[in-house]
Structures are given as C-alpha cells and as structure tokens.
Design goal:
The protein is globular and about 40 Å long. Helix 1 packs antiparallel against helix 2 (32-47). The protein has one domain (13-116). 64% of the residues lie in helices and 0% in strands. It has five helices and no strands. It is mainly α. The two termini are 22 Å apart.
C-alpha cells in the first residue's frame, strides 16, 4: 500500500526509493539532467516542500553529487556546505530539523531528514 505525500511526516517510501535508485543510475552514468529531474521527484516525494524549495533543494543535491566524487577529484568541504544548505531549506520548509553534521554524504541526506521527523 502506498502512502500519499502530504508533507514531511507522511510520504511514499516506495516512490522515494524508486527515485533514489534512478538518481544513483543517472549519477553513475553522469546524466546530470536526468539526475536533476529525478532529484526533484525524490525531494518532492520525501519532503513535501513547496515547488520552489523542492527545485532549490534538488539543485543543491545535484551540485553536491560531483563534489562527493572519488579522491582525488572531490571537494568534501563543498559537498558538506551544499548538504548544510539543503538541510536548512528542509528545516525552514516543514517540521523537520535534519542535522547536517550527521550526513556523511548526499546518499544519507534523505535518511537524515527522515530521522529528524521524530
């Protein structure tokens, strides 16, 4: 049974999981437009934010992804900054308070947000 998305406390875990899988595929293939499109859907399904914040958050996720690239072509400081900015948008947009210090990578981002739901 699928839950309807009405904000951060009620979300469709199947839809989020499918979009996360699609995001990983697009990331590995370096298909950044597809990654952005899937990220918008993943953020919308997982957090239920307004459209503007959803697109802004997805864009931050898109920018954080290459920053997490394998060493030596990565920029962990930039990636963490982008994740912090995403968490700030999520916190302002709803009743979640994700702790960016607990997010070691963008892959753990939605997990941290879901833990913050309480």
């Amino acid at each position: 049974m699928r839950a309807r998305t009405h904000g951060p406390r009620s979300f469709d875990a199947v839809a989020v999981g499918q979009r996360e899988t699609d995001a990983w595929v697009a990331s590995y293939r370096h298909e950044w437009l597809a990654f952005l499109r899937v990220s918008v859907g993943m953020v919308a399904a997982g957090l239920g934010m307004n459209r503007r914040d959803t697109v802004r958050g997805a864009a931050l996720v898109l920018r954080a992804n290459p920053a997490w690239a394998p060493f030596p072509h990565n920029d962990p400081r930039r990636a963490r900054d982008l994740v912090r900015r995403f968490c700030a948008i999520a916190a302002r947009s709803g009743d979640v308070s994700p702790d960016p210090a607990l997010v070691p990578s963008h892959a753990a981002l939605l997990d941290a947000v879901s833990r913050a739901r309480g």
